[in-house]
Write a structure and sequence with these properties.
With 432 residues, the chain is α+β, with helices and mostly antiparallel strands. 41% of the residues lie in helices and 20% in strands. α3 packs antiparallel against α4, α7 crosses α12 and α8 packs across α9. It is elongated. The chain starts with a helix and ends with a helix. Its EC number is 6.1.1.11.
Amino acid sequence: MLDKRFILDNIDLVQKNCDARGGKVDVSRFAELELQRRTLQQEVEELSRQANEVSKSIGKAKDDAERDARKEEGRSLREAKDAKQSQIDRIAAEADAIHRSIPNLTHPAAPVGGEEKFIELRRGEVQPPKMGFPVLDHVELAEQHALVDFEAGARIAGNGFYFLKNEAVLLELALQQYAIELLVGEGFTPTITPDLARGDILAGVGFIPRGPETQIYSVENFDLNLVATAEITLGGMYAGQTFDEEDLPLKLCGISHCYRTEAGAAGRASRGLYRVHQFTKVEMFAFTLPDQSEDMHNYFCDLECDLFNGLGIPFRVIDTATGDLGGPAFRKFDLEAWMPGRGEHGEYGEVTSTSNCTDYQSRRLDIRYRVKGEKGTHFVHTLNGTAVAISRALIAIIENCQQADGSILVPEVLRKWVGKDRIGSSDEDQEG
């Protein structure tokens, strides 16, 4: 969340930022409530002082009548204090709800507008291929080679769930190994994170764990939720902790399953593996000093590009427009892979993203750092980035690496784990 004092000192700026990001937030109402709360708090403190004075004077009363009168006065003062405290609690709850809904500030270079106002920053080393034969999408190819069973997944858990089979399983495991090998070589600490997290951790990271707008699966009768990304668990890993300045930046990567309700998602663009309720992801996360976060953000983007260049997948990187930023993000870059089976002539589809969240999450999670020789502490900056979301990476590989005979080439960097160069061939399909 943003610092309260900053909000109150910059009401118009914060409101303009909320509007640019499409947030329905009344910043003036927050300021009004904060003023009311502070005024009432002073009144409560004054009533408490008076009640204490009356309480001390009871023993000095001359007779029972005076003693009873002072007791009654003390009781009235305490009741008045309690009534105002109840007002404060109600006002504070409303103010807190508004405060938590105010998004992060926005990088001045981020494009302003709706989702379509993104700016393309760069393209990958490989250009979209000219197939020269009828292109199949990943669903058709997966059926042809028995790689994914959507029907069985639906029988077990409903639409949006699936079984990976045969070489798709080997590709998933290979993608995990490929990403982890690169990140460990870059100094990331590898982790396998819990798939569940408490509501306060989700709220601290910026997700809505309950309510009609949530995309989160919650566990009934428990304050636990299935995580939508390892960003939640990695961000919450150091909640309430204080780093020493010299220990930053700290780079982590985490493997987790990810669960999303994907309410309202539909259409051909969401077909197959693109928008599912469960998938595996390797996530990058960093805790940094404030002056390190922008460089770390660019570094995360470079790593994502390195991963997909290594796979030989065509892609572009976009600077996400303000109207498409999540609440915690100061700036976000999306890496969109070319998917030749998507749309009539192929389209780009998001496969990874990386966000600089500055101190927005650390304020909510109370994650700080101390500077040697200085009093007090400061909030760290947090950053997250997808190394590889397996389901969408599989789409990009299957569709871009399809061949005229119906087979699928395995990216060279994955072959040592998959154990083969190619999935299927026309001869094998005829034999089958």
